[in-house]
Amino acid sequence: MADKAKIFIDGEHGTTGLQIRQRLAERSDIEVLSMPEDKRRDPDYRAARLAEADIAILCLPDDASREAVAMLEKAGNTHTRVIDTSTAHRTADGWVFGFAEITRGQREAIAKADRVSNPGCWSTGAIALLRPLIERQVLGPAYPVTVNGISGYTGGGKGLIAQMENEDADDHITANNFLYALTLAHKHVPEIMTRAGLTRRPIFTPNVGRFRQGMIVNVPLHLDLVNGTPDQNAVHAILSEHYAGQNIVEVVSPEVARQMPRVDAEEMTGTDRMRLYVFGNAEATGQVNLVATLDNLGKGASGAAVQNMDLMLGRD
To answer: Which residue, among 215, 191, 216, 188, has the nearest Cα to 204 in the 3D structure?
Structure first.
């Protein structure tokens, strides 16, 4: 691969694409292949850009991402590697899940991969909390998991951003926080199950808040229902051991967590990192609340895509 890697952001005018473009703007080792907005529906132009790229980062709806991959396959292109930020390939065979810290060896798998699927923002937080406990067989895969949280409205794309930032609108959704995915069929649930290692479908309750970026994901646990009935410190130790040796996912110490009266959903805004907490008073209640905070456009989307790109380029 040439010293200056050619990166095509397919969908650079959307929320995720714009954030990726911003992150690459000052990079001297990257050449961004651009596609003007008026060429978005020109298949020949798209195919040419895809063929030219060392890595194509797809910031598209699911069907459009599948079409882009099909273009490469139809052309017999074995040169262009792909990072897909959509939901289309997050549980697909032949695609490496782009969460470098998820388990041992994942960074190396991403670095070697030709096809990488970026995690969703909600699933990044949920998987980060659940996977270590399931790997250690402390949490059984059939445990009745509930995942709750609140996210900034930028995760809803341009339409929701326009609604939330329209001060003249009368729509109650524009004016307030709201709960959605009421049929319990949110598109992130399959990847949470597959990548965390769950066999029982979790109940997932997402909320949108009236703030641009940032999010909290929380998973409450009854410790008497998990294997070995660990205490709060033991749960924290499992997370700390799992994420040792890297600087993206931080597990906050029990001493700090115990002194916190609240958690701010925007505390990681503007970063590409994530914080994990183990809250509760397990001695009194036998319960803990696992909490992840991240920027839904950082580690939850664009930041993760750039991290995966760098791993694939050998520029971690």
So the answer is: 188
